[in-house]
Fold this protein.
Amino acid sequence: MNGTPAGPSGPLERRGFLGLATSGLATAVSIGSPRELPAASPNPMQNRPASRHKLGLDFFSLRSQGWSPFELLDFAAKSCVEVGHFSEPRFLGSLDPGHLRKVREHAGRLGLEIEVGMGSICPTSSRFNKEDGTAEEQLIRMFGVAKILGLRFVRCYLGSSNDRQGDVPFAQHIENTVKTCKAVRNRALEMNVKIAVENHAGDMQALQLKQLIEEAGKDYVGALVDAGNAAWTLEDPLHTLETLAPYALTTGVRDSAIWETESGAAVQWVPFGEGNVGIRRWAERFKQLCPDTTFELEIINLRSPREFAYWKPEFWKDYRDVPAHVFAGFEKLARTGKPYEKVPPGPAGADRNSPEFKQFLADQERRDVERDIRFCKQELGLG
């Protein structure tokens, strides 16, 4: 479900849902109207054959559209995906119980399932938003949201690759996340809601997330398996899948291109079928290992790659926990790749901070989502 890609003018942050009252639920936020949003039929999933391999869409994929939760659901239904994932509270528009019931009812009318998520639950992470309360308070609040929406888990994460730096050892961040989970265990079991921890934005490798889940308790903690974020932790996404499949509650999938550079390797998230991580093989293995889990798209096609300068000795001070056999799988992929050169050009003469360029990015974002949904249906046999 969701990394922090480098945007045209700097990091593209998953903005926090600020202003939530610690003791209550949030009020509505203003969300704009969609551009060229197709009208949804009453129930486009009606009379479709049942599929064990459901296709879903993380609404972070449409983060620039300014759409309300109802418009996001309409788009998902028109695109004939089966699950819509509100991976951040801001995409729900409000956490008011009455509003949430309307969202649930709208999804039901469209024949859609929904999922819900939040941000960091590690109190020492640079991504943790302490303005929303303690990690435990935030999780319990989202348990309540999940119950109103009729859901069985809440997605969350530790942090990002930035947490591999700084004064707090990364292992301590992991331990603090385990403590957060344990602190809400009884509430999770009482409410029958699980915690889906994502391998997020270059924070944990698959083996570390597996250990976190087992230490916290796999009876109420599982994984969101993100194929794109795997490449940001120097591992083959297939290794990530095979390690975390027994714990998978949902996924976040996109394709990646990896290639060698003078100082190490570069990673770029790209449209499905244009990477070299074997996304078709990944999808087939997913079908075998996770027959009842949603194949959920989180489309973040970057305009520039992220480089990992691992031939420089200083790089490894933040990655000493990477097993050699895991890195070898990543490096093997890098040797097979070549620089990605299919990034669509922006509007001629437009500054990257201009409204014209931002509109270009929003339009391209929507086209990328539509294209990748078609690819997954036609080429991967999903949905």
Notes: Residues 53-255+278-300+367-378 form a domain with the TIM Barrel fold (CATH 3.20.20.150). The CA atoms of residues 188 and 194 lie 6 Å apart. Residues 355-378 form the longest helix (24 residues).
